[in-house]
Amino acid sequence: MRSFIAMLKQITPCLPARTLKPLVFVLGVCISTTIAAQGIKSGEQVYTQACFACHAMGVQNAPKFGDKAAWHPLLKEGQHVVTAHGWVGQRGMPARGGRADLSLEEFARAVAYMARAAGGNWKDPDTVMLDHIRKEENERIEELKAKQ
Ligand code: HEC
User: 139: closest CA among 84, 86, 93?
Assistant: First the structure.
């Protein structure tokens, strides 16, 4: 870090160290945010690591990967609904696929990846889709509470 400040000093000889230090800090934040953004797993990565175990073979009637007939009703139900139901969990499907470390975005990417493999055109979720999924998640939780 010190040599980095020295280098910046060379480039900008008129700036005092007082000005350079916050600059270095801001740069550091930018770099780590970029790394964090890249740290989000792709749908394929999540599927392989967390969903494959059940969805490849259709354990306990899990909709199988690439099985158009099994995914057809789900594709019709809609991306936000199906993603939210999987995220909350139902019957043999454990909440979040049993992986508490996954973010909603990563989970949703894996669902979209499976849907595409079965002929759907679901995209990796953007912020609008993630909002829809969260709303559906809340409704689902209320629904399940009411049934208890
Ligand atoms: C322990 C086995 C298991 C694992 C691991 C698992 N699933 Fe499932 N999943 C199931 C089963 C069983 C069903 C069918 C549930 C039912 O009867 O409705 C299912 C259903 C689903 C559904 C359909 C929900 C609906 O609306 O009917 C989605 C979406 C889903 N899983 C996504 C995932 C994703 C994404 C992962 C990985 C992050 C994952 N699953 C991991 C067993 C699993």
Answer: 84
Task: Confirm or reject: Cβ of 140 under 6 Å from ligand 1.
Answer: no
CATH number for 85: 1.10.760.10
**Cα-to-centroid distance, 91 and ligand 1 (Å):** 9
Question: 90 with 113, same domain?
Answer: yes
- Which atom in ligand 1 lies closest to the alpha carbon of residue 81? 26
Q: 25 and 89: one domain?
A: no
From CA 120, how far away is CA 113, in angstroms rounded?
9
The four Cα atoms 112, 114, 116, 121 give a dihedral, to 10 degrees, of: -30
pLDDT tens-digit profile of 30-86?
455 554 556 899 999 999 999 999 999 999 999 999 999 999 999 999 999 999 999
**pLDDT band for position 15 (cuts 50, 70, 90):** low
d(CA 78, CA 81): 6
Q: From the DSSP assignment, how many helices (H) and strands (E) are in the chain?
A: 8, 0
71 and 6 in a common domain = no
